[in-house]
Design brief:
α2 (44-54) crosses α3 (68-78). A hairpin with a 2-residue loop joins β1 (5-7) and β2. The protein is α+β, with helices and mostly antiparallel strands. It contains three helices and six strands. The strands form two sheets. A four-stranded antiparallel β-sheet has the order 1-2-3-6. A two-stranded antiparallel sheet has the order 4-5. It is globular, with a radius of gyration of 13 Å.
């Protein structure tokens, strides 16, 4: 892995011309969260389902980095997440 950078609060790195973004930060920014119990949690089941539907490995955790193109595909679903 190349050196991890922080651009406007998002950890990322570049490898082979592709930018990879930290999934936990991306998920929070896109609204894939549940804050009903006074603590904000990432809705990992929702994120994994979207990744599965895209054909991307759903074996992800908060330390996972995803390619930029997968971020854009998640972003198209971010506003439709039911809370």
């Amino acid at each position: 892995m190349n050196e991890i950078m922080n651009i406007k609060g998002i950890e990322c790195y570049e490898k082979g011309g592709i930018v990879y973004l930290k999934l936990e930060t991306v998920a929070r920014g896109l609204g894939f969260i549940d804050s009903s119990k006074e603590v904000e949690y990432v809705r990992w089941n929702t994120v994994r389902q979207y990744l599965r539907d895209m054909g991307f490995s759903q074996e992800v955790a908060k330390e996972t980095f995803i390619p930029e193109n997968i971020f854009y595909r998640l972003a198209m679903n971010g506003n439709t997440v039911r809370r």
